[in-house]
Amino acid sequence: MADPVPGLCTCFGLSAEDLKRLALERGLTAVGELGDATRAGTGCRTCVPDLENLLETLWKLHPKPASKPATPDTIVRDAIRPFLLKSPWELNLIDVDEATIRIRAVPRGETCRTGEDTLRQFVENRLKEMYRPDAVVVFV
User: Fold this and answer.
1) From first to last of its 140 residues, what are the pLDDT tens digits of the chain?
2) How many helices (H) and strands (E) does the chain have?
3) Could you please report the per-residue DSSP string of 2-58?
4) Domain count, the chain
5) Among 47, 84, 94, 133, who pairs with 102 as Cys (CB 3.0-4.6 Å)?
6) Are 47 and 7 spatial neighbours (Cβ–Cβ below 8 Å)?
7) Within this chain, do residues 90 and 110 fall inside the same structural domain, yes or no?
8) How much is the pTM?
9) Is 111 found in the same domain as 57?
10) Which domain holds residue 52?
11) In this structure, are 92 and 133 located in the same domain?
């Protein structure tokens, strides 16, 4: 079945299918949680009613999954890489040693210093939020 509302959040280029998948994977039940995870509904906010409808419909059809602890590998794979698909970066998780996470950022094309700094901050914030607050992210 085709996505009924393609480009649901046009400010950030997020489709309904991507948002549904993420909500199911992470057990997100509120628009605020979806916004924290993806920025959906935090730009112009015109999609907020559609996001509310999407979540309401989704959780009527699916039982809420049991939460499981996130690992750096699953965070990079499921919560960070999807947002880098249109960016000039690819991330490779190199190693995890307790709270220290080593990541290699590989440019796919032209990049700038500001973009690299933004990437580093985004990755570190996500890992601290989803893995552990004392996480130290080292780019190698």
Assistant:
1) 444 445 788 888 899 998 998 888 888 888 988 888 888 998 899 999 999 999 999 988 887 655 556 789 888 888 888 888 878 888 999 999 989 999 999 888 787 777 888 889 999 998 998 888 899 999 99
2) 5, 3
3) --SSTTSBTTTTB-HHHHHHHHHHHT--SHHHHHHHH-TTSSS-TTHHHHHHHHHHH
4) 2
5) 94
6) no
7) yes
8) 0.51
9) no
10) 1-67
11) yes
